[in-house]
Amino acid sequence: MKKGFLIIIGFCFLSVLHAQISKPKNTSNNNQQTQQPSSSSLTDADYFLAVVKMTVKTGKDNKELGSKVILRIYPASGTDNWRKGYNQENIIPEFKPWSSNTYTLPRAAGFDQSFNSLANYKTTGIMVDINYNTVGNGPFFLLDAWKIEEVSVTLEFKDKNGNPHPTMGSKTIYFTDSNMYLDYSKWQLYCKTDPYFNTLTPFITKRP
Questions:
Q1: How many angstroms separate the CA atoms of 109 and 68, rounded?
Q2: How far apart are CA 192 and CA 27, in angstroms?
Q3: Tens digits of per-residue pLDDT, 37-88?
Q4: What phi, psi does 52 have (nearest 5°)?
Q5: CA distance 119 to 101
Q6: pLDDT tens per residue across span 19-30
Q7: Phi, psi of 118 (to 5 degrees)
Q8: Which of 11, 27, 76, 102 has its CA 20 to 30 A from that of 63?
């Protein structure tokens, strides 16, 4: 009788132990991490122009010390678009003959992040604007002239968390033309791309 009682007790113990082992584990939210959207779920509208570097190569004729220059990059179309992109003003130092000068452009005062989305640039193209001594921004030497051999821009597109775009994380574009020659009359150079970032022929506007 005693032996049978012990057998029953042992059987009950094994049954309880098996039930505990077979019980599913608790996977509560305390052990789960919030899933971040993958890069594959983002679109071009989620990436923005975050860093702009512009390099200007001077040819045989320098930019004089004191003749001011403004460098700008912005979407090629839109209302007051030049106010909403990137803008480096009042560049005074000399650009010596056959030299390269590189600037990381800050945001313009009216910077608009959504306006600078990769999606918008793929709609409008990119405008690079070199403004040589704007009206009222002198002094300016009337006989001064500046020969530009090449303009290049490096654009970095990133999402709101600073992650680079998979294919447009860094894009460098080069503009060259034999007519990139600025003086008192020819005072503003525009270098433009199409929506596919292919370069178009640069053009110059004359002082009114």
A1: 19
A2: 56
A3: 555 699 999 999 999 999 999 999 999 888 889 999 999 998 889 999 999 9
A4: -130, 125
A5: 30
A6: 554 544 554 444
A7: -60, -35
A8: 76
Token output for 47: 């990436």
147-158 burial code (b ≥16 CB/10 A, e <16)? bbbebbbebbbb
List, in sequence order, every residue forming a beta bridge with 142; answer none if it has no partner. Answer: none
Domain 43-206 belongs to what topology? Lipoxygenase-1 (2.60.60)
Candidates 126, 134, 127, 136; CA nearest to 182 is 134
Position of tokens 């779920």? 41
3-state SS of the chain is CHHHHHHHHHHHHHHHHHHHHHCCCCCCHHHCCCCCCCHHHCCHHHCEEEEEEEEEEECCCCECCCCCEEEEEEECCCCCHHHCCEEEEEECCCECCCCEEEEECCECCCCCCHHHEHHHHHHHCEEEEEEECCCCCCCCCCCCEEEEEEEEEEEEEECCCCCECCCCCCEEEEECCCCCEEECCEEEEEEEECCCCCECCCEEEECC
Residue pointed to by tokens 């678009």: 81
- pTM summary value: 0.78
Q: CA 175 to CA 71: how far, in whole Å?
A: 14
Q: How long a stretch of residues is the chain?
A: 208
Give CA–CA dist 135/185, Å, rounded.
Answer: 11
